[in-house]
Amino acid sequence: MRYWRWLGAGLLVALFSACRTIDLPAMDPSLPSLHVEDLLAPTASSATREIDRLNKALPRIPRHQREQRAAVVLRIAVLQTRRGNLRDAERLVRRSIGGHPSSRPRAIGLAWFVQHRIDMARDRPVAARGALESAARYTFGPAARRRIASARAALTPRVVRPAPTKSTTPVAIVRRGSWGSAAARPRAMVPMEAPDRITVHHSAMWTSPDLVTTCKLVRSFQRYHMNQLGWGDIGYHYLIDRTGKVIEGRELRWQGAHAGDGIANQRNIGICLLGNFQPGTKERVQRPSTKQLYSLELLVTSLSDMHGIPVASVFTHAEVHPKGPGATKCPGMYLTPFVRQLRSRGTQ
Ligand SMILES: [Zn+2]
After folding, report:
1. With a threshold of 0.90, does the pTM exceed it?
2. Interval between CA 317 and ligand 1 midpoint (Å)
3. Which strand (E) or helix (H) includes residue 314?
4. Whole-angstrom Cα distance, residue 262 to residue 250?
5. Is the dihedral of CA 91, 328, 304, 189 positive or negative?
6. What pLDDT was estimated at residue 163?
7. 299-304 long-range CB contacts below 8 Å, 24 or more apart?
8. What are phi and psi of 209, to 5 degrees?
9. What does the alpha-carbon distance between residue 172 and residue 201 come to, in Å, rounded to a whole number?
10. Minimal CA–CA distance to 339: which of 225, 183, 196, 200?
11. Which residues pair with 199 in a beta bridge?
């Protein structure tokens, strides 16, 4: 009997010392574990407070608990991405990607997954796709595989939706060729998934009504978006000039670049009304012209018919812009009420 007792105690000691050398999962339940759902969980308090708490906890985690340390670092990176601190987030991720891949494939795989979210937030779909491929090479576990599969699907061309039932759009559109558009770079864009919302912008620049100015302006937007920002084409799908002409921007088969980040742009049609509708800025202010508002309403109704988008899903840029720095008043005080009114008609 006594021998059994000693043997039991011996086993316990052996187990205890074994556990101390194994890289254990989260010991502290308030810290995230190295699982994708934990890393992406919504914030219980505020992101800033959680970042503070995790930064304080990090030095107290023993060195040998490498998975726990990696989980905390990656969680901070996810929170920094949400706050729009992409540079900080990227620095943390890079730290996690380095090192010996064979010893901690899960940490590296998840680090690449977080990197993909940073690339999406930067509106770099091509880089995001590459990061996902790297994540898929490392990450295991069904939840992570599911997350990667759905993120991949969002970045992969879809079967084109059946042709719209209405044969003609009631809105006359100035096609790309007519305003002298440059050729788009498809490799720098992602295909648009079936659109389910519309976002309205203003160009935030005082604009005159003549067509020559309009075409020149649209070309300059395209140049800026492609050459300075590195996008595949002009960011908006449509623009409306002061005389109410609807101008074709980025083709609808490509996801736009107008709402703030790759996630806000998903399934989102971007319409920009030319003019500055926000008083109190350095730029000369004007009100949207009646013809512009009329065209906006026609275009929204027609897009909502063609793509089955509820009119209740028409938003201002300020409403869809990701939380954090870079908040915007777009499309300005003089256009925002009209967009809200348009939307409320859809909810009646
Ligand atoms: Zn805007």
Report:
1. no
2. 5
3. strand 314-316
4. 15
5. negative
6. 41
7. 299/171, 299/238, 299/240, 299/246, 299/271, 300/198, 300/271, 300/342, 301/170, 302/166, 302/169, 302/170, 302/171, 303/195, 303/198, 303/269, 304/198, 304/346
8. -80, -10
9. 20
10. 200
11. 270, 315
| CA distance linking residue 252 with residue 241, whole number of Å | 19
Q: 12-21, 42-51, 120-129, 153-162: lowest mean pLDDT where? A: 12-21
DSSP annotation of 201: E
Distance 72 CA to ligand 1 centre (A): 35
Q: First-to-last CA distance in the chain? A: 80
- Average pLDDT over every residue of 135-151: 81
Q: Tell me the CA–centroid distance for residue 156 and ligand 1, in Å.
A: 26
* Backbone region of residue 305 per phi and psi (left: phi > 0; alpha: psi in -120 to 50; beta: other values): alpha
CATH placement of domain 25-154: 1.25.40
Q: What angle do CA 226, 297, 285 make, to 5 degrees?
A: 65
User: 245 is written with which tokens?
Assistant: 């002409």
Q: How many residues does the chain have?
A: 348
Give the H/E segment covering residue 246: strand 246-248
The domain spans of the chain are 25-154, 173-347
How far away, in angstroms, is 259 Cα from ligand 1 center? 7
Superfamily designation of domain 173-347: Peptidoglycan recognition protein-like (3.40.80.10)
